[in-house]
Fold:
Amino acid sequence: MKTLKMLRYIYISVLLLFFGSLGKAQSNVELEKVDHLMNSIPRGFTLGVNLASPVNHFFDKDRTGVSFLTRINVTGEWFFVGEAGYENVSFKKDAYHYESNGTFIKVGAEIDLLSKKKSLRDNMLVGFQYGLALQGQNASHFLVENGYWDDYQGRIPSETLNTHWFEVSAGPRTEIFKNFFIGWKVHIRASFINGGQNLLKPYIVPGFGNGDNRVNGGFSYTLEYMIPWKK
Amino acid sequence: MVGRIWLIMGMGLLIFTTSCNPDSICLSNQNAVQTGFYSAYSSVNKDTVLAKASAFGVGLNDSIYSKEGVQKMFLPLSYRHDTTAFVIENNTLKDTIWFGHTKELFFISRKCGFSFNFQIDTVWSTHAFIDSVALELNSVNYNENIENVKIYIY
Structure:
């Protein structure tokens, strides 16, 4: 269906090139056809889920979380993107027992590099986003082994952290059923404020990743349903 | 079709990157003062070896070294006290050496947890076979391997 539409568009464009000089009246008719094709591409907003956290949980059972996103088709090529979610961490290892509960929100913009082809069914999205995470964490017990003298045991009471970061992202998205999209992206995130951090660095910053690092790579895997507002 | 191929490639890549997430290696026994033995008779620092040396912490029975030939010793500092003392024995002669220190707790990484860094303030000893001691480097830090104290032997 998509290929058919593209072929029709190319066909009409070729027709315009070859027969553009034949007369003003005929050109106007063909241009109206092109406009009609472009306007037939639906615009709208999507509601979706990012499966990165459930995938992380599969590899690391200490982590639990999920996030939801929306993508609003502002113009033919620009999207507003927003995402909100949570991620909790809980484990008891020899070195320390740890617990963290946190939420995050991200907002930004994405451009579709394939928009020149006037296709909403295949996108190559490149974006820039700002992220904010709030989390509470504590280490109810930690152990420093000495090896000869007595070991040291202690605890880190609850503390609240806020982390701010910027990220760039890129990846493809495609429509697999009518108005249902599936896609993935790689992300590079760099934090610029790590508020509230004292001794203990967060195991995971929700939405950002490894709390040991100021720069993290990451991925997202999204399922989205589009609600069109314009056809 | 191109979109589908991209997606499948991506899924494989994502699983690969998720499963390959190496963390740092955790080091143990990072709380030990590094001491080196030198001849007291030489005008320049000249290494010397204790032929049959033993060492244990004052108040503990377990030996750190037991009748070994050593040029240097790694002596672990106590987390509980501000002074850590050891008896060093060479053949039949015994000396006691004290380290006065402060410590600071720090977080290594999410995999390794916590550790202490130390600052050595003072070092002193008895003089059965030890002529003198010299504090060369105050800090005993995680993942550092530098000699802290020179012990000059008669």
About this structure: Strands of chain A lie at 43-50, 63-73, 78-92, 96-112, 122-144, 152-177, 180-195, 204-205, 209-210, 215-230. The first strand of chain A starts at residue 43 and ends at 50.
